[in-house]
C-alpha cells in the first residue's frame, strides 16, 4: 500500500485564494480600529477575495437571535436591524442545522424568508457557513451573488477557512463591542447536561481535557512570519525525535507493534505534510492554526477514502497533529501530561493512546461514539476509569479547563455543573468510596452464603493490565481470558513468539492462580483491520470462534503451541468459544492433542494438568450440555451470546438487545437445565457472560446451583458482599416459585424478595 499524506496535499489555488485572504485578515486584525470598523473591513475583503456581490456576518445573541453585524453588499441600514430567530430563514437554517448550505437559487429553498430591509432581491446564489467554536454556533457567514450558479468547491473551501478563522476571532472578543463579547462568552459557558451510555461504573469530577488540543490559547496569526516558521520547524523536529525515541523504547501494548510505529515514523517525516504546514505559516497563520487547518484538510480528504487500512492512517495523522500542538504549547512531544484527575473528552480514542494518558492519572473518560465492547472501553475497564459514551453534544460544547462530572453507572454527564449538581456528585462519590472500602475489607473472605454454600468468584480479563485486579479483588482465578484482544488490538497477526511471551506474562502475573484462556474468538464481527474476507449478512451467527479455528487449524495450533510453551510445567486451562456440536469439541481436542504430542517430542515435559472447557453459547450446545460435559473438563456459559441466540436478538443492536430480559422465567429455566445437565455429566458449570455482573442475575444463578461466576473486576466486591448476605436454601425455593409463576421478567419479584430477605443489593 503506498500512500503518504503528501498525496492528499493542499494545492495552492489560483490567485487571490485563501493565502492572500488570510494575509489581509491578519492586517485588518493588526490595525488599531474600533470593532465595527474591523468587521466592515473584514466583510469587504472577503467579498473581494471570493469575488462575490455580498458578504455578511450574523452573530448569535444569548437569546438565540441571529443579528446582522456587518455586510458588504446588502443595505447598510440593515446592520444591527435585521434580526432573526434560529428557526427563521436560510441563516436560521444554517445555525440550527450547524451545516453549510450552497444554493444557486436561494428563493427556491423552503427555508428562504424575505427581508425587505436588506435589499437582497437581486441575489440568487447563497452560501451560508456556520461559525462554530467549542461546539457552539456563534454566528453565520453568508456569501451571495447575483449569478444563478452556486459556489465552486474552491470558493466553498476558501469561505470555510475564513469561517474557522472568524470563529476564533469572534470567540476571542476582538471583533465585538464589550457587551457583545460578554454575550458570546456566556454562550460558550452555559451548563450542559446529557445522559449517554454507561460504560465503566464510577463517579468522577474534574477538569476537562480535550483530546483535540484547543485553539483558544493561541493567536490565529503569526506576529513575525520568519520567527513562526522557525518555531514550527523546531516543533516538527522535536515531534520527529519523540517518535524515534518511542520506537527505540517500543512502548506498546504487547511489545509487538514496531511495524506500526515504523509507519507512524514515515508520516512524521513526510515531506508533503511538513511542506503544507510551512505554506500556511508563510501565508501568515500561527503555527497552531496551520496545524489545525492541515489536520482538518486531511480529515476531510481521508473521510472520502473507502479503504479501511488507509482510513485507519487518519488516526496516525491526527495523533501526529496532536503531538505537534502539544509541543508548540510547550509540552514534551511524546508523553500526554494532564493534570491529576482530569477528565478526557474525545470523539473516539485508540487503546494505545488511552494507555499513554493513563500514566498521568486520568480521572475519567467521556467519549463521543464508542461502544461497550470497543477497545477503548476494554482498556478503560482494565484501568477502572469511569467512562460514559455517546455524548458527542457535550464534547462539542466543552472547553479545556471546564468543570465536568460523570457517573459511569448511570451515563449522566454534567458540563460546567451548578452547585447543586456538584453536591449531589460529591455525595455519590463518598457513598462509592465507602462501599469500595467495605469490598476491600472482604477481599480475602470467601464468597459463601449464610448457610455455607460457596461459589467460586472469578474475574474476566483480556489485557495484562487486568491482571493487577486479581490481587486487589481477591479473585481466585481468571474465569475468562479473552485472548483475541491481542489479535484485535495489534495491526497484524501476532506471531507464535508474541503470543507465547504474552501468555507467559499473564501466567506470571496470576502468580499460580488458574487462568482460563479462551482460544481466539475472532472472525465475523470481531475482525481486525488486517483481516480480509467477505462481509457476512449475519456475522454473529457467522464464521467465527471455533468454526474459524477448525477451518484454519494453523491459527489454532499456533495458539495452542504458544499456550503450552508459555505454561511450561504450570497447569493450563483452555476454553473453546462458540461450540455448536460435540463433534466440534472432539475435533478441537484432537488438534490440541497433536500439539501436546509435538511438544513432548520436540520440546519437553507438558504442563502438569491441561484442562479443556467448552463455552455454552449456542442453544444446540446448551441443549446437549450433558454430552458436552462428558467431553470437557468444565463448562462455561457465555450468556452474552447465549441470550442473543435464545431470544434471537442481536446483542449489538440497541433496539433489540435490551428488549428481552435474561431474568425471564424462560431463560432462567433454560439455564437451570444447562447447569443441571452439565453437572450430571460430571463437569463444573460456570457463567462468564456480562449479565452476571447484574446482582439479580447472580442471585438467580446462585439459586440455580451455578459453581462458578466470572465477572468484571469491578463487580467482584459488590457481588461477594451480596452473596454473603444470602440464605441459599430460602433463595432457591423462592426462585423456583417465581419461575413457575411465568411472566416476562422476574426483576421486580427478585428485588422485592431481596429486600424482604435482607439481602445487600449493590447500589447502581
Ligand atoms: C459471552 O458470549 O457471554 C462471552 C463471554 O463471550 P464474548 O462476550 O467475548 O462473546
Ligand atoms: Mg461469546
Going across the major beta sheet, what is the strand order?
7-14-13-9-10-11-12-8
Q: Average pLDDT value?
A: 86
Low-pLDDT segments, ≥5 res:
1-15, 251-257
Largest sheet: 8 strands, mixed
What does this entry look like structurally?
The protein is α/β, with parallel strands linked by helices and 764 residues long. Among the domains are: 18-188, 2-Layer Sandwich (Beta-Lactamase); 443-757, Alpha-Beta Barrel (TIM Barrel), CATH 3.20.20. Helix content is 47%, strand content 15%. The protein has 29 helices and 22 strands. The strands form three sheets. Strands 7-14-13-9-10-11-12-8 form an eight-stranded mixed sheet. Strands 15-16-17-18-19-20-21-22 form an eight-stranded parallel β-barrel, surrounded by six helices. A six-stranded antiparallel sheet has the order 3-2-1-6-5-4, sandwiched between helices. Helix 26 (695-703) packs across helix 27. Residues 1-15 and 251-257 have low confidence and may be disordered. It binds phosphoenolpyruvate and magnesium ion. The site of phosphoenolpyruvate has 10 residues, from strand 16 and helix 23.
Q: How would you sum up this structure in a few lines?
A:
This protein has 764 residues and is an alpha/beta fold. Phosphoenolpyruvate (PEP) binds next to β16 and α23.
What distinguishing features does this structure have?
764 residues, alpha/beta, disordered N terminus, eight-stranded mixed β-sheet, elongated, Beta-Lactamase, eight-stranded parallel beta barrel, binds phosphoenolpyruvate, binds magnesium ion, TIM Barrel
Amino acid at each position: 500500500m503506498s500512500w503518504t499524506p503528501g498525496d492528499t496535499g493542499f494545492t495552492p489555488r489560483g490567485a487571490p485564494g485563501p493565502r492572500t485572504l488570510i494575509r489581509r485578515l491578519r492586517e485588518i486584525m493588526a490595525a488599531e480600529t474600533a470593532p465595527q470598523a474591523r468587521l466592515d473591513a473584514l466583510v469587504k475583503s472577503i467579498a473581494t477575495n471570493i469575488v462575490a456581490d455580498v458578504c455578511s456576518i450574523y452573530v448569535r445573541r444569548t437569546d438565540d437571535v441571529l443579528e446582522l453585524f456587518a455586510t458588504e453588499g446588502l443595505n447598510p441600514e440593515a446592520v444591527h436591524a435585521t434580526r432573526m430567530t434560529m428557526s427563521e430563514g436560510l441563516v436560521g437554517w444554517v445555525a440550527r442545522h450547524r451545516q453549510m448550505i450552497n444554493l444557486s437559487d436561494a428563493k427556491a429553498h423552503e427555508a428562504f424568508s424575505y427581508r425587505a430591509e436588506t435589499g437582497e432581491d437581486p441575489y440568487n446564489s447563497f452560501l451560508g457557513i456556520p461559525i462554530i467554536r467549542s461546539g457552539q454556533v456563534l454566528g453565520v457567514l453568508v456569501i451571495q451573488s447575483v449569478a444563478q450558479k452556486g459556489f465552486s468547491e474552491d470558493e466553498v473551501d476558501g469561505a470555510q477557512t475564513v469561517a474557522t478563522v472568524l470563529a476564533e476571532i469572534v470567540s476571542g472578543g476582538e471583533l465585538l463591542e464589550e457587551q457583545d463579547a460578554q454575550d458570546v462568552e456566556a454562550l460558550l459557558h452555559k451548563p450542559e447536561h446529557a445522559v449517554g451510555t454507561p460504560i465503566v461504573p464510577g463517579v468522577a469530577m474534574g477538569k476537562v481535557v480535550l483530546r483535540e488540543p484547543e485553539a483558544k490559547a493561541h493567536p490565529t496569526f503569526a506576529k513575525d512570519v520568519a520567527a513562526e516558521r522557525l518555531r514550527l520547524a523546531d516543533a516538527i523536529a522535536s515531534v520527529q525525535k519523540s517518535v524515534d525515541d518511542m520506537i527505540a523504547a517500543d512502548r506498546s501494548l504487547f511489545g509487538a507493534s514496531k511495524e506500526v510505529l515504523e509507519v507512524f515514523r514515515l508520516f512524521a517525516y513526510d515531506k508533503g505534510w511538513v511542506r503544507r504546514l510551512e505554506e500556511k505559516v508563510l501565508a501568515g497563520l500561527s503555527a497552531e492554526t496551520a496545524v489545525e487547518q492541515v489536520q482538518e484538510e486531511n480529515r476531510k480528504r481521508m473521510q472520502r477514502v473507502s479503504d479501511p487500512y488507509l482510513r485507519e492512517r487518519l488516526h496516525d495523522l491526527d495523533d501526529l497533529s496532536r503531538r505537534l500542538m502539544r509541543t508548540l504549547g510547550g509540552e514534551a512531544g511524546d508523553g500526554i501530561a494532564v493534570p491529576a484527575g482530569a477528565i478526557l473528552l474525545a470523539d473516539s480514542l485508540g487503546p494505545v493512546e488511552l494507555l499513554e494518558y493513563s500514566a498521568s492519572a486520568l480521572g475519567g473518560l467521556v467519549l463521543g461514539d464508542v461502544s461497550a465492547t470497543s477497545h477503548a472501553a476494554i482498556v478503560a475497564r482494565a484501568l477502572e476509569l469511569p467512562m460514559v459514551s455517546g455524548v458527542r453534544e457535550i464534547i462539542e460544547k466543552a472547553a479545556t479547563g471546564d468543570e465536568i462530572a460523570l457517573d459511569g453507572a448511570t451515563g449522566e454527564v454534567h458540563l460546567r455543573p451548578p452547585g447543586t449538581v456538584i453536591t449531589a456528585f460529591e455525595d455519590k462519590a463518598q457513598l462509592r468510596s465507602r462501599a469500595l472500602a467495605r469490598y476491600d475489607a472482604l477481599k480475602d473472605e470467601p464468597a459463601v452464603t449464610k448457610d455455607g454454600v460457596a461459589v467460586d468468584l472469578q474475574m474476566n480479563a483480556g489485557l495484562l493490565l487486568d491482571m493487577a485486579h486479581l490481587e486487589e479483588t481477591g479473585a481466585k482465578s481468571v474465569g475468562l481470558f479473552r485472548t483475541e484482544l491481542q489479535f484485535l488490538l495489534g495491526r497484524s497477526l501476532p506471531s507464535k513468539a508474541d503470543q507465547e511471551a504474552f501468555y507467559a506474562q499473564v501466567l506470571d502475573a496470576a502468580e499460580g492462580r488458574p487462568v482460563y484462556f479462551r482460544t481466539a474468538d475472532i472472525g465475523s464481527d470481531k475482525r481486525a483491520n488486517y483481516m480480509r474476507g467477505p462481509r457476512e449478512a449475519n456475522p454473529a451467527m457467522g464464521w467465527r470462534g471455533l468454526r474459524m479455528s477448525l477451518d484454519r487449524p494453523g491459527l489454532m495450533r499456533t495458539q495452542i503451541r504458544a499456550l503450552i510453551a508459555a505454561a511450561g510445567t504450570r497447569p493450563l486451562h483452555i476454553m473453546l468459544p462458540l461450540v455448536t456440536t460435540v463433534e466440534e469439541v472432539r475435533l478441537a481436542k484432537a488438534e490440541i492433542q497433536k500439539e501436546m504430542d509435538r511438544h513432548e517430542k520436540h520440546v519437553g515435559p507438558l504442563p502438569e494438568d491441561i484442562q479443556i472447557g467448552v463455552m455454552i453459547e449456542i442453544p444446540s450446545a446448551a441443549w446437549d450440555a450433558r454430552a458436552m460435559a462428558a467431553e470437557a473438563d468444565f463448562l462455561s456459559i457465555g450468556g452474552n451470546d447465549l441470550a442473543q441466540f435464545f431470544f434471537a436478538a442481536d446483542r449489538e443492536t440497541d433496539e433489540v438487545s435490551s428488549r428481552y430480559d435474561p431474568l425471564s422465567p424462560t431463560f432462567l429455566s433454560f439455564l437451570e437445565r444447562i447447569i443441571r445437565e452439565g453437572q450430571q455429566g460430571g463437569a463444573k458449570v460456570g457463567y462468564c457472560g456480562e449479565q452476571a455482573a447484574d446482582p439479580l442475575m447472580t442471585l438467580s444463578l446462585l439459586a440455580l446451583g451455578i459453581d462458578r461466576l466470572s465477572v468484571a473486576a469491578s463487580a467482584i466486591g459488590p457481588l461477594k458482599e451480596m452473596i454473603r448476605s444470602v440464605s441459599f436454601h430460602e433463595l432457591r425455593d423462592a426462585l423456583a416459585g417465581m419461575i413457575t409463576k411465568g411472566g416476562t421478567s422476574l426483576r421486580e419479584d427478585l428485588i422485592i424478595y431481596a429486600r424482604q430477605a435482607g439481602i445487600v443489593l449493590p447500589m447502581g
